[in-house]
Amino acid sequence: MGMDDRQDSTDPGADSSTFGADVERMLGRAQDMCRRNGARLTPQRRHVLGLILASDRPVGAYDLLDRLRNDTRAAAPPTVYRALDFLLEHGLIHKIERLSAFVACRHMLHSARECENHLHSAQFLICTRCGQVTELEDSQIVHALVHATQARQFSIRTSTIEAEGICAACA
């Protein structure tokens, strides 16, 4: 746990925003998961995660910053990047490098315990026309990757695969 994990938010209104019921449920799971791991999901981190969960598309850091500012929060780029780093470190979100954007971890959406106990692996299908991103949960891909790396005496901690193409809606 880093020093940043122990800091409280100084923004008294940082947790005043309410998301929809599904997002609030997932935020509760994330809060529980962080608590079990001895980490703190501060109001600012919670709000950033809520914005990512509520989005139907990957969200960039500066889009998050704009949304935080629209919610009358005094937010600066370092604040957003620290929140994103925390969320990445704790497996709550993924960064899609190709888009320089963030999405919620699909495993976390289903079960915080499942998210804690799996090899943090993500496979993304990225439509180059509309920008839609779909996260796969293909155990065969993970198994093949683990098998190939074990043969080379390499232990995977995380993996992200980004495949670009055309989605069915754009085809």
Secondary structure elements and their pairing?
Layout: H1 21-36, H2 43-54, H3 61-70, H4 77-89, E1 93-96, E2 101-104, H5 106-110, H6 112-117, E3 120-127, E4 133-136, H7 139-150, E5 158-165
Parallel strand pairs: 3-5
Antiparallel strand pairs: 1-2, 3-4
Helix pairs in contact: 1-2, 2-4, 3-4
Descriptive report:
The structure is a single chain. The longest helix has 16 residues, at 21-36. Residues 1-16 have low confidence and may be disordered. The protein starts with 20 loop residues before the first helix and ends in a 6-residue tail after the last strand. α1 packs across α2, α2 (43-54) packs across α4 (77-89) and α3 (61-70) packs across α4 (77-89). The protein folds into 2 domains: 3-117, Arc Repressor Mutant, subunit A (Orthogonal Bundle), CATH 1.10.10; 119-171, Ferric-uptake regulator, C-terminal dimerisarion domain (Dna Ligase, domain 1, 2-Layer Sandwich). β1 and β2 form a beta hairpin. Helices cover 43% and strands 16% of the residues. The protein has a 3-stranded mixed β-sheet with strand order 4-3-5, with no helix packed on it. The chain has a two-stranded antiparallel sheet with strand order 1-2. It is built from 7 helices and 5 strands, in the order ααααββααββαβ. It has 171 residues and is of the alpha+beta class. GO terms for molecular function: DNA-binding transcription factor activity; transcription cis-regulatory region binding; zinc ion binding.
